[in-house]
Amino acid sequence: MIESANRLPRHIGLPELTPRQRQVLSLVVREYTQTASPVSSRTLAEQHGLEVSSATIRNELARLEELGLLTHPHTSAGRTPTEIGYRFFVENLMPERELPLAERRQIRHQFHQLGLELQQWLQLSASVLAETVRNATLVTAPRSPHVRFKHLELISTYGNAILLVLVLQDGTVRQQALLANEPLTQEVLSSMSDRLSALCTGMEAEDLKTLPRDLPGFELEVIGLVASSMQEIERAGSPKAYHEGLKHLVAQPEFHDAASIGQAMRLLDSDWLSDQVLPEVLTAGGVTVMIGRGTEGVNLGDFSLVLSQYGVERHLIGALGVLGPVRMQYERVIPAVRYMAGLLSSLVWGLFGPGGSQFP
């Protein structure tokens, strides 16, 4: 199964912070993600037991602002984290945590009530993750990085008409009608199906083109149709994605207007997310955090994404993640995404791995 270790890209080239500066920045991030209100030196001194004066804390806040980690809203005496501040927190200050045991047990219980229906798992994953982190979520169906042949069936229908049923190793099924030059019995077609399936098992579309050209003409025609179908699947759009939790996202104080709600819906539904962002996650492994406008050229505006791959490595891989405000409680979201990815990986392995449909 895919390892779900926390692997976050490092973007920041900043001077080393002193222990006190690290503590102050960490407290500001935690306070602001919970309250959505700028954090003052007085709040830090009174509520967090810092054994220094408010003046000392103000100096540290000012230094962190100079470094670009905090900003100072004009209408408030407090500070808020910048995108760089959030990244510094996630990459350097946030402790490695697990989802609480009680929540893990509750989530597992919900999955155990389902049958072996992958679609149900994906829908439930999106819903449970949204309720757990109180933000929007997306889960994509797992796909093979390479379209590989598993087997085919040729079924006689009427006269010369034949139904070709193609099954790929990720469970994809394609059907296509074709005509033979003459009527063929089901016995002949079944024998042909077995022979071609044994010959082509595990092959990709390009491999099929290298098969011996001295095969009987009708079998060559079948292989040509199979190769074309597999190439169409490779060129097909992004895998189906399941979305949940938009209501949680729009309840955040940052997203109270129609424009921000529309932006959230576009991010969840856009081909850009599926075509450009998710492929990077699928090749990176572990958990990826993308914050606001400055993550390797990806502009998320006022949003952040916490994403992870899941599945059976090299065979079936999908992605799941959380879309929320930049002011996201990363300490809670990242463990939840990591845990859900591990759970889905186990479920997919149980369905398609040893004991399920065998991989090559």
Instruction: State the strand order across the main sheet.
Output: 7-3-10-9-8
How many helices does DSSP assign?
Answer: 13
Overall SS class? alpha+beta
Q: Tell me the strand percentage band.
A: 15-25%
Helix content: 40-55%
- Uncertain segments: 1-12, 355-360
* Total strands: 10
SSE succession: HHHEEHHHEEEEHHHEHHHEEEH
Whole-number mean pLDDT: 83
Shape: elongated
Q: What does the main sheet amount to?
A: 5 strands, antiparallel
For the terminal residues, how far apart are their CA atoms?
A: 15 Å
Radius of gyration: 26 Å
What can you see in these coordinates?
With 360 residues, the protein is α+β, with helices and mostly antiparallel strands. Helices cover 47% and strands 17% of the residues. The protein has helices at 19-35, 41-47, 54-66, 83-93, 101-112, 118-133, 186-200, 205-208, 217-235, 246-250, 258-269, 271-284, 330-352, and strands spanning 70-71, 80-81, 136-140, 149-156, 161-168, 173-179, 241-244, 287-291, 303-312, 316-325. It has a 5-stranded antiparallel sheet with strand order 7-3-10-9-8, sandwiched between helices. A hairpin with a 3-residue loop joins β9 (303-312) and β10. α1 (19-35) packs across α4 (83-93), α2 crosses α3 and α6 (118-133) runs antiparallel to α13. The protein is elongated and about 95 Å long. The relative contact order is 0.16.
